[in-house]
Amino acid sequence: MMIPVEEALEKVLSAITPLSHDTVPLLNSHGLITAETINSSINIPPLDNSGMDGYAVRSEDIKTSSYKKPTTLRIIEETAAGTIPKKRVLPMTATRIMTGAPIPNGADTVVRFEDTNDSERSRQNSNSNINIYVPAKTGTAIRQAGGDIKIGENAITAGTEIGPAQIGVLASLGNTKIKIFRRPKVSIISSGNELVSPGHSLPEGHIYDINTYSIASSVARLGGTPEILGIAKDTRESLIGLLEKAKDSDLIITSAGVSAGYYDLVKEVIQDYGSVDLWSVKMRPGKPVVFGELQGPKNSKWPSKVPILGLPGNPVSAMVVFHIFGRPILKKMMGHKKWDPVSIEATLLDPIDNEDGRRVYARALIDQATNGEYTAKLSGPQGSNVLTAMARANGLAICPEDINRLEPGSKVRVELL
Ligand code: AMP
Ligand code: MG
To answer: 314 C-alpha to center of ligand 1: Å?
Structure first.
């Protein structure tokens, strides 16, 4: 009996738990999820400082300023970012100030150069006086201490995905490391007597191993660490030999050897090592999906159970099944709370046929028309072996299980790749 995609995914994810934590240098944390909440130990900015190049003044003194009747103030000091002003701004005086420099005591406003008779912002002003042309409210062009983050405030919450802005915020607090959910180590095994690794000559009747490469890079793109274990021959011994190397990993991904007859061999091997199920999932491409947990041979158990996802052999099916099941597994392991792919609605330009009540994931090229609407064009023949159509696609256009044919012009949901 075939089961719906959602049911299969729920079964898979119920066996997956987030991995342990690790502390890594900031620049290695991109794309990972924080496992700790970071409270600020300092104010950002640390001191009130100037948001403009100009003059720090007392707003009181310049209340009546205008171009016709400027207020003349005496310049007492010049200060730039990285220095602390020494003098207090007393009535009818001003400090020449650069962006980022701390506000001197006594001043409550900064008037930008453009509103004074000093246009030489780059040079020192040798005049001893400055004419102010405009009034300004208290606090103008002053960035308050703690205006971004205050001491003790929550800067980054546990569970946040780390990107350039989060890394910048952590750096602003002086941090060099962050505690994250660690990267899953994913063992990758291809199987089939016909497979040869790229870089070797290709004997007649053989093909190059694609899945090791497309799946390893899919794992790496999500932030996992792929461990390429090699190609298993279609024998018990060969498969066992490679599985043994996977005992320390967080996930094993195999490809091929799950079509009807052959599955018996895989199942036989795996039965000794743990348990697996083969599901007929209502999806095309990629109907047969294998999932289970291995714990090593009966006589010498592994340190812990390792989940195993068996992808179909056809390269497109392998990638689509990875997209539907592998991606959520890795995301959950990495501490994500959500893993639904980004999806959009598009107008379909080609028909999608659905012959047997499965959900069809059609390789499609999404474009945006001048009116802002998306269109989805099939990116090539939809056979599960045609990987070039995958390489030309940027989305999977979905024809639901209960619809026989989506006509051109109809609306279609597209999961972006
Ligand atoms: P199987 O599930 O072993 O029957 O494989 C189904 C199809 O996928 C066959 O045509 C295989 O040659 C092909 N195939 C399996 N594994 C790979 C791989 N790693 N790279 C390229 N094609 C593969
Ligand atoms: Mg095979």
So the answer is: 5
DSSP-assigned letter for residue 63: T
Prediction pTM value: 0.91
CA atoms 87, 92, 98, 99: torsion sign:
positive
Residue minimizing CA distance to atom 16 of ligand 1: 313
The dihedral built from the CA positions of residue 351, 354, 360 and 361, taken in this order, carries a sign that is negative
Ligand closest to CA 258: 1
Distance 235 CA to ligand 2 centre (A): 11
* pLDDT tens per residue across span 91-136: 999 999 999 999 999 999 999 999 999 977 667 777 899 999 999 9
CB 384 within 8 A of CB 286: yes
Which letter does DSSP use for residue 13 in this model? H
CB 366 within 8 A of CB 394: yes
Compute the Cα dihedral for 69, 75, 76, 79 and give only its sign: positive
Determine contact, residues 324/5, Cβ cutoff 8 Å.
Answer: yes
Contacts of residue 307, Cβ cutoff 8 Å, sequence gap at least 6? 15, 16, 250, 251, 252, 291, 292, 293, 294, 329
Separation between Cα atoms, residue 224 and residue 321, nearest integer Å? 17
How far CA 136 is from CA of 52, 108, 184, 188, in Å, comes to 13, 10, 56, 66
Which tokens sit at 141?
A: 């062009």
Widest Cα–Cα separation across the chain: 96
**What number does the ligand 1 atom closest to the CA of 256 have?**
2
Tokens of 405: 């044919």
Q: How many Å apart are CA 191 and CA 172, to the nearest integer? A: 49
CB 267 within 8 A of CB 276: yes
Q: How many residues does the chain have?
A: 417
- HSE, CB side, 13 Å, CA atoms: give it for residue 319: 24
320, two tokens: 């689509």
The span from the CA of 225 to the CA of 145, in Å, is: 42
CA 165 from centre of chain: 12
pLDDT tens figures, 369-414: 899 999 999 999 999 899 999 999 999 999 999 999 999 999 999 9
Q: Which residue has tokens 């496992």? A: 35
Q: Is the dihedral of CA 316, 322, 323, 324 positive or negative?
A: positive
